[in-house]
């Protein structure tokens, strides 16, 4: 059949079917399940993700594509800043949910792309005494999980901003998008219809920005957005992290969303 599973007609028992590895032989017994991929029999245990791949160390990557396109994936901030200095017009990529649309539907050209997904310093998530620090490459789904943890563990008056952001993330795009889209990418595209950018301002968030020399400056969220898709980032600068201070007593943060659809 097109499903890849053995035909159901004929005998009901499986006689001496060898596994795809050619080692194990299954006697006259009904198999637990079949693999939807290649019709192989699952007799006792489901396959697990290979431990060798799970333990494999990440490596910096440099790939060359058609027409001179280049794609880099650094692992540390200093390497990212060096690439940023070397290619000041390169586009930074995390989930590619924005740039992919620009390239596919707006014919935008980005010959050099730098992936920031594996940069350690951009993936920090730190719960501090005075607030929450979030690296700019942290995925929206991961942010959602840490916010739920913070809300459960800290005093309720401290987490008013966190609760508002967490509630908004429920209706922010679909799960598959939140699994790849980064918080920094959402901020730096400065979309006027972004669900989160008004919340950063309401929550008194501060953005840490680093330049190609490693110098860091802090900008308040309400001063970071300069206009339609314009932000306070000079050439060569990168959004490093976002800091959300705990809410103060009798300080309440709420957001209300009106849309044609529940998601996206």
Describe, in short, the structure shown:
The protein is an alpha+beta fold.
Notable characteristics:
single chain, globular, Xanthine dehydrogenase, Uridine Diphospho-n-acetylenolpyruvylglucosamine Reductase, domain 3, alpha+beta, iron ion binding, 4-stranded mixed beta sheet
List the helices and strands and how they pair.
Layout: E1 17-18, E2 25-26, E3 33-34, E4 41-42, H1 51-54, E5 61-64, E6 70-73, H2 77-86, E7 91-93, H3 99-105, E8 112-115, E9 125-127, E10 131-135, H4 140-153, H5 160-170, H6 175-178, H7 183-188, H8 197-202, E11 206-210, E12 216-220, H9 221-224, E13 225-227, E14 230-231, E15 238-245
Parallel strand pairs: 6-8, 7-8
Antiparallel strand pairs: 1-2, 3-4, 5-6, 9-10, 10-15, 11-12, 11-15, 13-14
How would you characterize this protein structure?
With 264 residues, this protein is an alpha+beta fold. Among the domains are: 59-115, Uridine Diphospho-n-acetylenolpyruvylglucosamine Reductase, domain 2 (2-Layer Sandwich), CATH 3.30.43; 120-245, Uridine Diphospho-n-acetylenolpyruvylglucosamine Reductase, domain 3, CATH 3.30.465.10. Helix content is 25%, strand content 20%. It has 9 helices and 15 strands. It has helices spanning 51-54, 77-86, 99-105, 140-153, 160-170, 175-178, 183-188, 197-202, 221-224, and strands spanning 17-18, 25-26, 33-34, 41-42, 61-64, 70-73, 91-93, 112-115, 125-127, 131-135, 206-210, 216-220, 225-227, 230-231, 238-245. Strands 9-10-15-11-12 form a 5-stranded antiparallel β-sheet. The protein has a 4-stranded mixed β-sheet with strand order 5-6-8-7, covered by helices on one side. A hairpin with a 5-residue loop joins strand 11 and strand 12. Helix 4 packs across helix 5. The protein is globular and about 70 Å long. InterPro entries: Ald_Oxase/xanthine_DH-like (IPR016208), FAD-bd_PCMH (IPR016166), FAD-bd_PCMH-like_sf (IPR036318), FAD-bd_PCMH_sub1 (IPR016167), FAD-bd_PCMH_sub2 (IPR016169), Mopterin_DH_FAD-bd (IPR002346). Pfam families: FAD_binding_5. Its cofactor is FAD.
């Amino acid at each position: 059949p097109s499903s890849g599973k053995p035909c159901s007609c004929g005998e009901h028992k499986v006689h001496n079917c060898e596994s795809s590895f050619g080692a194990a032989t299954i006697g006259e017994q009904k198999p637990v399940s079949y693999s939807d991929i290649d019709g192989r029999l699952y007799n006792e245990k489901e396959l697990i993700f290979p431990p060798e791949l799970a333990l494999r160390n990440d490596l910096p990557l440099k790939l060359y594509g058609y027409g001179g396109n280049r794609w880099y994936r650094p692992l540390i901030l200093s390497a990212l800043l060096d690439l940023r200095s070397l290619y000041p017009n390169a586009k930074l990529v995390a989930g590619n949910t924005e740039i992919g649309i620009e390239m596919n539907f707006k014919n935008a050209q980005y010959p050099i792309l730098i992936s920031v997904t594996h940069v350690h310093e951009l993936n920090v998530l730190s719960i501090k005494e005075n607030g929450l620090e979030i690296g700019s490459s942290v995925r929206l789904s991961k942010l959602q999980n840490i916010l739920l943890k913070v809300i459960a563990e800290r005093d309720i008056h401290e987490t008013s901003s966190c609760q508002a952001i967490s509630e908004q993330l429920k209706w922010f795009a679909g799960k598959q998008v939140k699994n790849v889209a980064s918080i920094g990418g959402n901020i730096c595209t400065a979309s006027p219809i972004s669900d989160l950018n008004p919340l950063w301002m309401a929550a008194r968030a501060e953005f840490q920005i680093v330049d190609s020399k490693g110098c860091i400056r802090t900008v308040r969220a309400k001063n970071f957005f300069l206009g339609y898709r314009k932000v306070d980032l000079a050439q060569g600068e990168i959004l490093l992290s976002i800091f959300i201070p705990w809410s103060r007593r009798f300080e309440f943060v709420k957001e209300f969303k009106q849309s044609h659809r529940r998601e996206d």
